[in-house]
Amino acid sequence: MERIPTGIEELDEMISGGYPKGKLLLITGTPGAGKSIFGLHLLHKSCKSGKKCVLIATEETPQDILMQAKILGLDLNTCIDNGNLIIERVFESRTESVEQASQFGSGLEVMEIDILERVKMVPNDTDVVIIDNLGVYALDHNTKDFRNLIDTINHILTNMGITTLIIMDETANALTHNVAEYSAYGSMKILIKENPYTSLRERYLDIIKMRSTHISLELALFDISSKGIRFRILKSSGL
What we know:
35% of the residues lie in helices and 28% in strands. The protein is α/β, with parallel strands linked by helices. The protein has one domain (3-192): 3-Layer(aba) Sandwich (Rossmann fold), CATH 3.40.50.
């Protein structure tokens, strides 16, 4: 199976060279665990190699995303300038809708941005799509409808041959009974655990599944530095 590099060399080694090309992958975790940074690595690597990428940003402005990427040594500004990266401003559209509705006494009960319409508008020549964070839509759907949403996104983008990374917060994943993990071709979870020997909190990546890929059942320990994500050693899942 053809692979697309993740932008993190150690992760590529763990999953046979990268994410399965043209498939939908899922990464979940708690706030601050580093989920979005995995997405930034993929965008940076893909754009720099000439691939066309779309980031559907539901929780941050493009300015904040670009600033975070630059701090991590993953400058995406040139990718915007040369047309290799498009950032869909879903977060801003959502907040503007809330502001407009509040002026008419509607409170926060406003029609959400149709995420499927955003997906359908992805250009045909796109190679990579990242949706960060799809979990914001979990509150507006029951489990069955959310599963249908994931499956529809998967169907649209996979048929276009696009490699897709969906990022979700762990709260939304639990709220929807982890149904996104069943739809995804590959699923990864970030855990933050206390090391019993040092009493320090550490980040681990658990590769739950990756079809057509030999994966380890062990947790992979990683750090986040000024150079982004760097994996250190593999730890037993019994830690």
